[in-house]
Amino acid sequence: MFAVVRTGGKQYRVAAGDKIVVEKLDGEAGAKVTLGDVLLAGEGSELKATAGLTVAAEIVAQAKGEKVIVFKKRRRHNYRRKNGHRQQHTILKILSIGGEQPKKTAKKAKAETPEAAPAEAAA
């Protein structure tokens, strides 16, 4: 399942398990965030209703973007200004869309622990 969410004035197409970089959101690493502005949702070519649909995400890190140099100059007027800017970003990991959990790969089932077997035999 996928969804298109809007945050920070931009739109992102997300699915469960994706990591995206968005404009800065309040919160520490590990905090859970709910993105409620869902514009579109669907699975494959089928679209679903977005009324009341939310996207659950976890903050992975707060980071800074690349440095952007702003240089202003006016010829023959001895006017030069140099400025730099680094945008604040938040890295999000999408946990679920509308309560749906991501599909995990199949793992081998663990054998029963040896401690549990004697307890059953004694009973």
Automatic annotation (TrEMBL):
Any Pfam family hit: Ribosomal_L21p
Keywords for the protein's UniProt record, in alphabetical order: Ribonucleoprotein, Ribosomal protein, RNA-binding, rRNA-binding
GO annotations of cellular component type: ribosome
Chain residue ranges for the region called Disordered: 99-123
Biased composition (Low complexity): 114-123
Coiled coil: none
Keyword NADP: no
Source species, domain of life: Bacteria
Keyword Ribonucleoprotein: yes
Similarity field: Belongs to the bacterial ribosomal protein bL21 family.
Subunit structure: Part of the 50S ribosomal subunit. Contacts protein L20.
Biological role stated in the UniProt entry: This protein binds to 23S rRNA in the presence of protein L20.
Protein name per UniProt: Large ribosomal subunit protein bL21
